[in-house]
Specification:
Elements: H1 9-24, H2 40-53, H3 57-62, H4 69-79, H5 83-103, E1 109-113, H6 131-139, H7 145-150, E2 154-161, E3 170-177, H8 182-195
Antiparallel strand pairs: 1-3, 2-3
Helix pairs in contact: 2-4, 2-5
């Protein structure tokens, strides 16, 4: 749980409760450390921004109006990323992969929050207008980044809801496993779902 990864108390509690359920089902639970996790949001952005823009040069020149404004901003930003930053990000990616796969030699699956915060309201007009907002947006990827960068299979599963006062929004944890061992990941998720009733809840109809 690196310091830079902000974690909502309700998310933390929901994931801890889910881990307790798995322990009651017979899982041998232990805590492990993944020091590079807090940096994976930055590493992922440095790589994916450059990779994505490299696939769109002709369309960006010929039909920029077909791209959402936010997407064009992302592509413009990617063009400003120096080659040495991209190169360093790729080296760090290898280190993240070694770290994740090393942990998966010790345990069958890794469990952590899918996101540090509950689901939020979709706001298409939301803009990042401060350095602090940008930092939060980049660091948020640290929960999912380790598995995107390492190629380890991972799934996200509902593990609770926020309090009614906070809107009863969904909370999720992710379960990650060894490469090509999706079966174990799915078995753990299925066992958890059979032991709880979160997946049976139906939201009220919107009027």
């Amino acid at each position: 749980d690196p310091e830079e990864l902000e974690l909502d108390p309700q998310v933390r509690q929901a994931v801890m409760n889910a881990i307790e359920v798995l322990a009651e089902l017979g899982a041998d639970v232990r805590e492990v450390s993944m020091p590079l996790a807090e940096k994976t949001g930055y590493i992922t952005r440095a790589i994916t921004h450059v990779d994505r823009v490299s696939l769109h040069p002709e369309w960006l020149r010929e039909r920029p109006q077909d791209y959402h404004h936010g997407t064009r901003v992302h592509f413009t930003t990617a063009n400003l990323i120096p080659a040495q930053v991209y190169y360093k990000a790729q080296k760090l990616r290898s280190m993240v992969r070694q770290q994740v796969l090393g942990l998966l030699e010790e345990v069958d699956v890794l469990i952590q929050p899918t996101s540090g915060a509950p689901a939020n309201v979709i706001n298409l007009d939301q803009k990042v207008d401060s350095q602090e907002q940008a930092r939060k947006a980049l660091s948020a990827g640290g929960f999912r980044g380790p598995y995107s960068l390492s190629g380890a299979p991972a799934l996200s599963i509902l593990c609770g809801f926020t309090s009614e006062g906070d809107g009863g929004l969904p909370l999720a944890m992710q379960i990650a496993g060894r490469p090509f061992d999706e079966a174990t990941v799915l078995r753990v998720a299925h066992a958890y779902e059979q032991a709880v009733d979160w997946n049976k809840r139906v939201p009220p109809a919107a009027l």
